[in-house]
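Deviations from the work plan: none for this task. Representative record:
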Amino acid sequence: MSEQVREPLWEVFIRSRRGLSHNHVGSLHAADAQMALRNARDVFTRRMEGISIWVVPSASITASSPDERDPFFEPAADKAYRHPTFYDIPKEVKQL
Amino acid sequence: MDPVDLEVEFNGLVEADQRIEPRDWMPDGYRRNLIRQIAQHAHSEIIGMQPEGNWITRAPSLRRKAILMAKVQDEAGHGLYLYCAAETLGVDRAELIDQLHAGRQKYSSVFNYPTLTWADVGAIGWLVDGAAITNQIPLCRCSYGPYARAMVRVCKEESFHQRQGFESLYALSHGTPEQHAMAQDAVDRWWWPSLMLLGPSDAESTHTSQSMAWRIKRFTNDELRQRFVDMVAPQADVLELTPPDPELRWNEARGHYDFGECDWDELRRVVGGDGPCNRQRLAHHVSAHEEGAWVREAAAAYAAKHSAVGVVAA
Amino acid sequence: MTAVAVDPAAVYTLRHADDCLVLSHRLAQWSSRAPSLEEDVALTNIALDLLGQARALYTRTSELDRTGRSEDDHVFQRDERDFVNCLLVEQENGDFAVTVARQLLFSTYQLETWRALGGSTDRQVAAIAAKAVKEVTYHLDHATQWTLRLGDGTAESHERMRAALERLWPYTAELFETDAVTDDVVARGVAGDPQRLRAAWDSSVDQVLREATLERPSTSWTPTGGRRGLHTECFGYMLAEMQHLHRAHPGARW
């Protein structure tokens, strides 16, 4: 037998119903995109969990590194004025 | 970051009941421990397809046949979710399968017992899945994110497994005398292996304390075993079936059922490879895997010829 | 010897129910043996769809023949000579190529059959067919994807797929046969003419084979008899396994 085949890993994203975005649900192996899509249908939507599927090669995902976490995400922490609760509005004002 | 700081941060996250995610720094021991446990769990799902799958072609009604097929299929799905969780730790599924075949990774010893009658399918659902669920529910809060998420999915899907087993066994125990005898015989054979599924006693468990510190495990084996017995003992009364343990009785003072000691020598023998079906289960998996090799090679060859790797949507 | 049913429509629905049941059973035999975990799940999905179709058709059969038989009576209490499935679906799984070839050839036929039944004058049959069309469309897609990969994969897979087609091709002639039963249901608008499905089946299968770099086998042998309860020897063993437990406990409930 030839050397063992290692099928690529795919990340699976499913839209569970209209109006919602695709969510990551897991991953699986398949030799190519068409099979990955079909495998995702068979594996992840047996209980009507979805109406649309994306599959993406895991290797194609560029992820932020935990090392970059502070420069990436800390600077947003002190910008409370981006949130509506930052503002003082008299109680009698409605619908604002 | 400094290695010491990394470890401090890791421990802080675990203690704060936060989840560790794949790209986070983690101690080598934590990674190894998780790979071992998740792989063993995944292998158990996959090998666990065999004893029940043994009855798919003989199921006595179409309703039972559909249920059993869906259940065994779920186990394949659960194995798959778990292999993927393990893969986030930097191992490949193919490596894990190799380790299983080489005997370097284990699966639950309970699947090394044979399914001799149809009632065994019900008994596995009620007892083996019952014990497995007892073990799995706390794992939904395990400190490693991908494992915890896989377990949430598994537990959600498995909620029908134990019910169908109970229902099937109930139909037998309330059926003809022959069916009742079949059900009792199955419970006689599956009771103790199910109790042992929850692992060796705390005194002998080699992994428990570190796993608890890392919040991979939340309860000790003995705590889970007590919880399981407390759950199924009253259910046995409803089934009108008698667990094969003369010491099983309600203890008012403790607020728990007392129960007898498992045959730990038997567990050691079965874990060590000398259960009734160890060789058969592994040989079945090895042969299916080897017979599928040419198919996987064909798919890879076709992909190499035709695929432009990319995002595909449906 | 032949089915108890007298209404030809009941015989017709029974034939298709038996097709679904038997192929579902064969596919279920793959459980824990498939080439990958993903494929194990996929094959069981197809098997479960077919089992569901069988159950609906057995129920309709009993309404049409007024025997009051349950689905389990149909499945577990009939003898080999009473089963009227086509020979193709009962053929043993063989290697994965044989299973894929069988699925391609049968799903293509089944899809055309269900499409025609969608316009049936029997509204319940039409409803069963409308649901089944969606399921079988997926089964055919699955079989097509694998035919392409095995046919146009490695030299070994191509050879296995070629051999599988050669082995199963003779059993496809039976699918398009007509007899008094089909003549009756076609005349009453219950079903489409099997012979008229042939052209669509030919062009659909030929297209997949061409794309998969495979050739259509030629054969002079066209075995038949399934619709009259004359089966291949492997079928008796399948039934024995399927029925023994149910029959060992007469009258028991499960």
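The first strand of chain B starts at residue 249 and ends at 251.
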